[in-house]
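Bug #2210: token dump truncated for Maestro heat like repeat family member 9?
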Amino acid sequence: MALMLQLFYSSRMSVVADNGLFYARDAMRVLLNCSGLQEVDVALKKKNCWNQFSHEIFYHHGVYLVAKTLGDYNFPQFPETLHYLYKLSVEGPKRSEDSIITVIFLTELLNNFFRDPFPEEFLVLFRNWVNDSNPAVSKLSLQKIASMAPVVNQIENVSSLLLSILDSLFSKDKTVIIRALLTLRRLLGNLDRVTYSSLCIRIASSYCPLMDHGNAGIRSMAIRHFGELLKEMSHYTWMLNHVVLGGLVPLILFLEDTEIRVVKACKYTLAICASELKWPTSCLFDDQNYSFELVVLNICNNLLISHMSCVTEMIADTLGFLSSSRAYLRRASVILIGK
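Reproduced locally. Full output below:
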């Protein structure tokens, strides 16, 4: 493990010998052969792994290949390596790159020697890594957790795991948010409805702030996933009505988004909202009959009939969009307030 870290840092510093080989890479190959793991060295050579270590851009894939190949050959030092990695993870490495290498290596070892879900003591590590300060660590952890979707109901403390993923939705890194949204959707698609219902309000509320995210991909995903949640939790509408009403303003305004994927997501989710609230508006989202002002008028009329108490709050929410830098949002806000 120490040599693998040296490989990374030497590649970044371009410390290359005259023959083009890294000292740490050579030492690692010697160590493998002296440990009775000659087959691993040969297999890695066939996979062109040693040459990949010469290029920083391929480094993480090289770490993955080493870990996977060791697992494939059932190397006898597995218990000691696993203990070392666990100790390193619990104590917390000082350098962020140490965390990335530890996550990659530990994931592959566990994949080879354990069936999903991982034992709880290891799953706790991945749960903690979800909100690591290094985005690469967060995404690696989220990616592994997503792969456990088929066995999500066997995970101990699954609620705690889901809450950690919800926290990562507020990351400053948009790629982490996207990975968290995808992971959450995969898990929820397999989650038992009892656990799902206990968390649905918290999950739905977490989607709402992302509907106004500066990234169109995140906006469209959050809006569509909000709709998926409402559809899956249709038997719990009475619990979610206030969340639905609270999310109506961005759902309406972003019907005017310049990004087609956002508009489609809004139409999809608003049709589900209308169905859950027993509003006869779904036909208005058909492309042939579509008119933004007619949709707004119809929703407002239904609000006045069934949820008059929400109108003041919706006006207040809409006023917040009047200062938006996006012209389509300001225009849509004026129309909604007017209606």
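Output looks complete on our side. The chain has 19 helices and no strands. Marking as cannot-reproduce; reopen if the truncation happens again.
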